[in-house]
Amino acid sequence: MPSVSFTIADVFSTTLYKGNPLAIVDAREETLTDTQLKLITRQFNLSETTFFFPPTSPKADFKLRSFLPDGKEVIGAGHNILGVWWHLAQANLLPLPVPQAADENFVFHQELGGQVMPVRVTRHTSAISFSVSIRQSTPHAHATHPDPTGLALSLGLRPEDIGFEGLPPQVMSTSTTRHLLVPLSSVAALNQVTVAGREALLAQLRRADNAAYGLYLFTPEAGDGDGEGTTNTRAFQARFFSPGMSGEDPATGSAAGPLAAYLYRHRALKVDGRGAGKIIVRQGLRVGRECVIEVELGVGKNEDGEEVVEVDLVGGGVQVAEGRIAVPDVSTQF
């Protein structure tokens, strides 16, 4: 029976069983149909499973495809993509030179959803470890939620728990995946949130945007700089819920990236003279995880003099398991 090798990594953490679990499958040697990819993903039953293949574009080093357990393919770049590149570096599957005495950056290219995007791999020689930086698609702002009071009550909160620094609940995206970003007034309010059920959550998302996939709640962390958007580095805690998930997501890169752009858009995050800003997001604390996502924000001008905002996710991982999984028979239905 044919099989393929896999690795399970905890992403956005360097501590076993504290990151966001990801199944990573080496599909370079087998020709797998979409149905086989979906069956393997469902068998792992993690939030996402990502497969890496030889590239079809001459400009890319690897082609990646990522799936949810329900069979939906994910194009957004979050822990599902960053974790694969961390694995490729850690498993010596990237052509890296002999380590030097200082940290080194290397640029590779990934093929994802028909696009070729750069990936930065940093080798930290002091600990012989790696971190990865991935560029997300251009951030986009969408509708704001029309009823913050109703949203608060649906989450078991008081109306005054919604918002800080004048920020509104708003839908943002850096891919085809849109999330409703909801600012909360305190860590206490964040910890108090209760999501009644799939239908109630879906109803609130649809009030803002019929295409919204998840609810991303965030609040400044204690000791978050000076607050009020007066610094180019800020720290937050966050939680994420989606009707498509059975529970709370421990780390959501597809929401953390847009969050940086959202904060800049609403003047809650400044950039320095180089047009650079940064946020640090801690997530998963309520579900026994301790994920740390760094987002680097870059602001510049294009050839027409228009402002361009870019976001990069930065993080690492730790290997939890490895092995081989049988390739499903081509006649098996999903």
From TrEMBL:
Catalytic residue positions: E48
Domain of life: Eukaryota
Organism: Corynascus novoguineensis
NCBIfam families per UniProt: PhzF_family (TIGR00654)
Family matches, as SUPFAM superfamilies: Diaminopimelate epimerase-like (SSF54506)
Name listed for the protein in its UniProt record: Phenazine biosynthesis protein
Molecular function as annotated in GO: isomerase activity
InterPro entries (UniProt xref): Phenazine_PhzF-like
GO cellular component: cytoplasm
